[in-house]
Amino acid sequence: MRVLVTRPKQEARKWVDALVEAGFDAVALPLIGVLPAPRPEAVQAAWQRLDSFDAVMFVSGNAVDHFFAYKPAVAPVLDAQGAIKIRVFVIGPGSFSALKRNGVEPDHIDMPDRDADQFDSEALWAVVGHRVVPGFRLLIVRGAGKAEATSGVAADGAGRDWFAEQVRRAGGEVEFVVSYQRRQPDLGEPERQLAQAAAADGSVWLFSSSEAISNLAASCPGQSWALAKAVVTHGRIAQAARAAGFGVVCESRPTLAALMASIESQQ
Fold first, then answer.
1. Within this chain, do residues 190 and 246 fall inside the same structural domain, yes or no?
2. Chain centroid to CA 4: how far?
3. pLDDT of residue 139
4. Which of 25, 40, 96, 226 has its CA 20 to 30 A from that of 87?
5. Whole-number Å distance between alpha carbons of 199 and 192
6. Are residues 10 and 52 in the same domain?
7. Same domain, yes or no, for 176 and 210?
8. CA–CA gap between residue 244 and residue 199 (Å, rounded)
């Protein structure tokens, strides 16, 4: 049974390697393209006044890596050798690893417990909500779809919208900055043929983003997914998969061990 990993290219490669090592027939079919920040000056400006925030939240590993790509030479905040003055919030282990890779000390990072049922904004709020008091200032570093990219400042969205609203209700302030741009990938004929075959041959689609599902549907207009199987990492993604017409949708915890078990259950 083949497994199609739909994460952006860099993350997809890591998941494919782990699945292949575990004995799965896994291939990468990235359904989200990643580009640098549409307005680098906005990211640079955020770095210049980072110490005016009480915390910075990164929505993904891509958000971390592209934000740190614009890190100035002297940045005492978020510097492993400096006096870190603010907290760093992340939703899951991938972003946590990206922060460590970029020199942020683990003691200054807040994230849901690794045994949590879900890695999402709700789980993160349960961990950090007590820190938010009137006047608390939060910077959310995220990506933007094509429609958002021209301004360099993204609109709220999905779980991040909910998290931002909790901060505001607690008397805090929220700002957003776009550190990278997401886009629909240009699938070549081999990729489209792979997608069309996987719609009905018993392959398992692995989705960690609703946007990947919408990009798939846009790339294969008219394709029926009634016989397709999907393993997804969140309830919101499960809703998107069912809305797209996937015949079988299995929700899993977003850890490789749990995903492997869910994939095996589709045999």
1. yes
2. 17
3. 96
4. 40
5. 11
6. no
7. no
8. 12
Higher model confidence: residue 145 or residue 52?
52
Shared-domain flag, residues 108 and 203 = no
Please count the structural domains in the chain.
2
Residue 83: predicted pLDDT? 52
Closest CA to 254 of 154, 112, 128, 152: 112
Structure tokens at 149: 């990219």
- DSSP, res 71: -
Residue 237 CA: distances (Å) to CA of 179, 208, 217: 23, 7, 14
Task: Say if residues 121 and 139 touch (Cβ distance below 8 Å).
Answer: no
**Residue for token pair 């949590």:** 116
Cα Rg of the chain (Å, integer): 19
Domain membership of residue 75 as a residue range? 35-183
Note whether 49 and 175 are same-domain residues: yes
> Does 107 lie in the same domain as 149?
yes
**In the structure, what pLDDT confidence band is assigned to residue 157 with cuts at 50, 70 and 90?**
very low
Collapsing DSSP to helix, strand or coil, 61 comes out as helix
Q: Which CATH number is 126's domain given?
A: 3.40.50.10090
Q: Which amino acid is at 183?
A: R
Per-residue pLDDT reduced to its tens digit, 1-20: 899 999 998 889 989 999 99
**Which residue reads 């292949």 in tokens?**
20
